[in-house]
Design a protein that fits this description.
The protein is an all-alpha fold. 79% of the residues lie in helices and 0% in strands. The chain has 18 helices and no strands. It is globular and about 60 Å long.
């Protein structure tokens, strides 16, 4: 129902108002808080209906997850241009560029659903990803908008919390707009509604003020990227975020197809599972600032890894709706902890003069692996089944435990020397 869209948007604005009274943070952060879920709702739309629509449009059903993969590849391909455009033209110009790209993608997706051309829908998905690469830079824009380094986990948690609204806006937009426009397999109107949400985000971001970051004075030249990425803290930061993101995408991409296409669960049950998952990705941000204070980043990262282990156990236990629901719910929570941990640790690996190239490299690696994971999800699912999808994630969970061990040992040594709790 359209009323659900209006209620969600009203709650988004109300939440931003309440949080702005609780936390004394720059205006930029609240603009990002409002704009981000409006454009980020494109992700849940593609995840929810992309595979279902593609299975009708594509000649080979195993290509059903290709649009999701192309969307993530678009994020990887756009990560470097997004960072460089932000460096030379400012965060505001880069943000508006990305939002405009997402708007064009929504209109192309509308046309593709209208005329039933799979290749055009695949192009739209790629452009959604490219635009999303600029949206991913919102978290760095938020960090740079604050002058206090201690505010970083809190700012990231607040910004991630806004993703809860994307979790509901995306799937609701997909269903509400499904029959707004006539099309052979439906959903053309879904992308019209999505375009309107993105337009709202563009209007919001017109009020954003470019950040003015003073570069650190470094002795000698800025370090080459090859030297920066060899640092243990960089490897731990990018490893935890990348594996956490890739495994989340791997299981999430396979879930709608496994539930609806292979197990015959209803579209509404599938929507409920995906909405619950995406909400669980961001709702923990209400408590993660408190958790970081209590158990530090190292504790948060370990809990996230343990949760991923529990996800695998539940997913292997059965294929009823509740098995999928609990697995995807916990998968979202684990992703939140791992992604926030990795993003919080990344700034420790670079100076402000090096930030753009390191941020670009981080996002390129993260989303390239996520794209590979989403592509493999469809292939493994259709050729070997859901249980094989879950079993193949176990080696990467073991790697996460290894990263936790190395980080704990590294931080213990530094704590003994400097008293740091991170």
């Amino acid at each position: 129902m359209l009323i659900n869209i209006f209620i969600t948007l009203s709650l988004l604005l109300l939440t931003a108002f309440i949080l702005s009274r609780i936390y004394t943070l720059p205006r930029n952060i609240w603009l990002l808080f409002i704009a981000q879920p409006l454009v980020a709702s494109s992700g849940p739309v593609i995840v929810f209906i992309g595979g279902i629509l593609s299975s009708q449009l594509a000649s080979d059903p195993s290509l059903a997850t290709l649009p999701i993969t192309l969307m993530i590849l678009g994020v990887a391909a756009g990560s470097v241009p997004a960072a460089m455009l932000a460096k030379f033209k400012g965060r505001k110009f880069a943000a508006l560029t990305g939002l405009s790209c997402s708007m064009v993608a929504a209109l192309i997706a509308l046309v593709s659903a209208k005329i039933s051309v799979f290749e055009l829908f695949a192009l739209a998905s790629l452009l959604f990803g490219f635009g999303s690469a600029f949206t991913q830079q919102f978290r760095f824009a938020a960090i740079e908008s604050s002058t206090g380094d201690d505010d970083t986990p809190k700012i990231l948690a607040i910004l991630m919390l806004s993703g809860v609204f994307a979790a509901f806006l995306g799937p609701e937009a997909a269903l509400v707009g499904k029959d707004w426009l006539t099309s052979p397999y439906g959903y053309a109107g879904s992308f019209l509604l999505l375009a309107l949400l993105i337009l709202f985000a563009i209007i919001i971001m017109l009020g954003f003020t470019n950040t003015d970051i003073k570069e650190d004075k470094v002795i000698g030249q800025v370090r080459p990227l090859t030297q920066i990425i060899r640092q243990p803290i960089f490897i731990i930061a990018i490893g935890s975020a990348t594996i956490g993101f890739a495994l989340m995408s791997y299981l999430m991409t396979a879930t709608p197809l496994s539930m609806h296409h292979m197990q015959g669960h209803s579209l509404h049950d599938t929507k409920w599972v995906i909405q619950s998952h995406i909400a669980a990705m961001y709702l923990p941000s209400l408590i993660t600032p408190w958790l970081v204070k209590r158990i530090a980043v190292k504790g948060l990262m370990l809990i996230g890894t343990i949760i991923y282990t529990i996800v695998a156990i539940i997913a292997l236990s059965g294929e009823q709706v509740m098995h999928y629901w609990w697995a995807l719910l916990l998968l979202g929570v684990g992703w939140n902890f791992l992604f926030l941990s990795g993003t919080s640790l990344l700034p420790q690996s670079y100076s402000s003069a090096e930030r753009h190239k390191v941020q670009a490299s981080n996002d390129f690696i993260l989303f390239a692996f996520q794209a590979l994971a989403s592509l493999m999800a469809g292939w493994v699912l259709f050729n070997a089944g859901w249980h094989t999808v879950v079993l193949s994630s176990l080696p990467f969970i073991i790697i996460l435990f290894m990263l936790n061990f190395f980080y704990y040992r590294n931080r213990t040594q530094k704590t003994n020397t400097h008293g740091s709790r991170l």
